[in-house]
Amino acid sequence: MRLKIGSTYQKAVTIIEKLKEGNASIFICGKSGTGKTTLSSDIIIRNLLESGVRIVVIDHRHAVSLPADLEPYVHRQDVSQKPLKLHLFGTSANPADASASFVDTVASVIRLSDGQKPLLLSLLEKVLRDSPAPNEALERLHLEIQNSRSLAAPGLEKALTPLWGQKFFENGDFEIFSGITLLELDSFPPSTQHIVEEVVFAALLREATREDFPPTFLYLDELSNFPLHQTSALGKILNEGRKYGLYCLLVAQSICNFKAGQRILLQQCKYAMYFQPADDEIRMCARFISSSGGTKLTSMLKSLQVGEFLVSGPVYVGDSDTPTTKPLVVHSKPPEDVVPASDSPTIPMPSDTEPILPPAQIDFLPPLDELDGCDDCNDEDSTQNNEFEPVTEDVYPPLPSSSCELSSASISPSKEVSEPPKQDLPTSEQIIASIASSNRPRSCYDYYSPAWPQTQPIDSSCVEFDFSHADFSSLVRKDDKRFVFTPNIKP
């Protein structure tokens, strides 16, 4: 049997099992609207039919939805209109064995007191020993209970009310058609449904013990509405069915709806598929997959999108001959239907000291080779001008506001700074102007502007400062805190 359940990394994910030799039961869980129905009915059931596997479906609320193109393979039977053919009391010729089998089946869905169960067992054995027609056995049993003088008889009669007067069984071999056998129980009240379900499960398990029993899957949606415990027929199918080629495909919305003993039974399923769980049960799902319930599993479950599920069990990826046993995130679409995501942009990782700026901010930053002292620059003039000594805050006074404030002290060059190059101007105009400096340290990243420095003339009474021929790039200090430049002064 090969079941293609989806894809991962553009490769098909497949379940491969040798039926009647291994365990192929599947449990699917996830909240409504995440893709459970698509996977169970449209993918798995379709693959099972292609593999020639029979499928038995119990629909107790008219809630099972199958793809329209599979309808030709579906054999529907409304049990309220057409009784089920099966051996209600088993196939044993021994009345004691037959009555014990039936009482166990009934007791798994109907709570019987300590006095009611032995009374039912003795009365049924008496009825079967008298060898009435199987279809009349329930009517005879009802009369025996009514005529009993036991104190437990009234309570037993009331407990078995769903069985009285119902014609939903007739004696015969249990009929399982090729393809899909769908039994509709929505016409019965819930108490009767549970009895019918349990009888059907017990009959199915009896049929599976036959040597000629073909591989069969029992498909149950809304699993929490079915009787599930160690002594129930469904519990026995989970524990023993794989020996006979009887497997389960079980679907539920929440793992929280099951008690601890029921969750132990569900772990008999070899394959478990978890769609996006509710927030309050993510940790429980993680522990259900692995007893440690690690943070990695929790993170994987949280990140699931609609149509994605986490599969637990040995599945084959692509053409690999070796199954992977680690939990794997799978998309329920085949590889050809999954559009590969476009290559994500390469995003540099921030260091401990250098944060990543948004692109809008990076575009306005000056080139790094102009901010690091031009260490990598090949320009000789730049290299020569890099040899500046650190400048203190009060080396130079601020620029004068008028020509009358100019003095030899204010325009004299400092001995600590190399003499700026002379300009090709008349001798009278070869005067070194005062060198301006900022009042506080500033960062290029904080105050950088593509329009700086200003190119328009700045008028200050009778003095005109012209910066049009000034080259400031070689005067940027390594400490990135101060700009020093020499302007031309025109009186």
From TrEMBL:
The keyword Nucleotide-binding applies. It comes from the Bacteria. The keyword Nucleotidyltransferase does not apply. Signal peptide: none annotated. One of its GO terms (molecular function) is ATP binding. Residues 369-382 have a biased composition (Acidic residues). Keywords: ATP-binding, Nucleotide-binding. Residues 326-427 are annotated as: Disordered. Residues 401-414 have a biased composition (Low complexity). InterPro entries: HerA-like, P-loop_NTPase. This is ATP-binding protein.
